[in-house]
Write a structure and sequence with these properties.
This is Concanavalin A-like lectin/glucanase domain-containing protein. The protein has 316 residues and is α+β, with helices and mostly antiparallel strands. It has two helices and 19 strands. 16% of the residues lie in helices and 36% in strands. Strands 1, 2, 4, 5, 7, 13, 14, 15, 17, 18 and 19 form an eleven-stranded antiparallel sheet that branches. A seven-stranded antiparallel sheet has the order 3-6-16-8-10-11-12, with no helix packed on it.
Length: 316
């Protein structure tokens, strides 16, 4: 019985997910299972519990979710089934944009929108969206002086269109060039961190592992709808590429004691990012319970053995 109780405690501890804090010990995080997606992606019924996908999307359970293959006129999407309602969150996405052609396009997008799974002309998603779009644009239409691939954010109000002819220049919230993000030699990732009314930060990893490049950061974040769906989409036209989602790690962020995070406004500037220290009070709390249970269980087993030996001695 005691062993079963300890197993239950262990499962409860791991179900909460990792708890992290920053270098100042303020920000902590709990894994959002409803928006995290990792291999093998699908269950025994060949469905995902938390995500839907459609159009030309292909799922390789041992490798990737391919939104578009390296073929013309492809369109694919991947969207969460339940909305993301956390006030503060961090989303880390490993992806891969690659192909064999010297001319390639068009790119893919990450969405936090009221709409979900709606096909359209904006990197495979419907135009006039409401929410936040992060575009990894690999094909340059008309943006003089800008190096591509280019990563940019657009805040949609449900009425404003994305202008493909100038690569969204007139509706850009913030962005940065990311030369080398396509056909990179390391796992490419993006990390989007949001604190409501406090900050929005986008970081990219494509030069070397654990070397996060700051794409943009602002202390005046856009107003993102309180109920949004997390999604991804991609499209190809005459030019094409493989657009793969490898994993999604979603976390709910919170600050004990009502402290606020510190961030510096900027656009396209880079600064070194310190790796987060792992470990937290909840994890240590559960481990103390487990250790206590082991001690109690061991004492019980020892006491039972002692009583049995006493009975045998008394009998003879």
């Amino acid at each position: 019985m005691w062993f079963a109780a300890l197993s239950a405690l262990w499962l409860a501890a791991t179900a909460l997910g990792a708890v992290n804090r920053d270098e100042e010990g303020n920000v902590r995080s709990i894994s959002l299972r409803t928006h995290t997606l990792k291999q093998p992606y699908l269950d025994s019924d060949m469905q995902s519990r938390w995500y839907d996908f459609g159009q030309d999307t292909i799922v390789r359970t041992d490798s990737y979710i391919r939104l578009t293959s390296d073929r013309p006129s492809q369109n694919g999407w991947l969207f969460s089934r339940v909305p993301l309602t956390a006030t503060n969150w961090e989303l880390t996405v490993e992806f891969k944009v690659h192909g064999k052609n010297q001319l390639y396009g068009d790119g893919f997008a990450m969405w936090l929108t009221k709409e979900r799974g709606q096909v359209g002309p904006v990197f495979g998603h419907a135009d006039n969206f409401e929410g936040l779009g992060i575009f990894i644009d690999t094909y340059k239409n008309n943006r003089p002086g800008v190096v591509f691939p280019y990563v940019m954010a657009m805040v949609g109000d449900g009425k404003t269109s994305y202008n493909k002819d100038n690569d969204g220049k007139d509706t850009e919230f913030a962005g940065c060039s990311a030369r080398g993000i396509r056909n990179a030699n390391i796992p490419t990732k993006l990390r989007l961190t949001y604190f409501q009314d406090k900050s929005l930060k986008l970081e990219l990893q494509y030069k070397s592992e654990e070397d996060w490049q700051l794409c943009f950061e602002t202390t005046e974040p856009p107003s993102i709808p309180s109920v949004t769906y997390l999604g991804f989409s991609a499209e190809t036209g005459e030019l094409s590429d493989n657009h793969d989602i490898i994993s999604i790690d979603a976390k709910n962020l919170y600050m004990p004691g009502g402290t606020s995070s510190k961030s510096t406004p900027g656009k396209g500037s880079a600064k070194p990012i310190k790796p987060q220290k792992t470990g937290g009070s909840w994890t240590w709390f559960f481990f103390k319970i487990i250790f206590f249970g082991l001690a109690v269980g061991g004492s019980y087993v020892g006491y039972t053995a002692w009583r049995a030996s006493k009975k045998r001695t008394h009998r003879f």
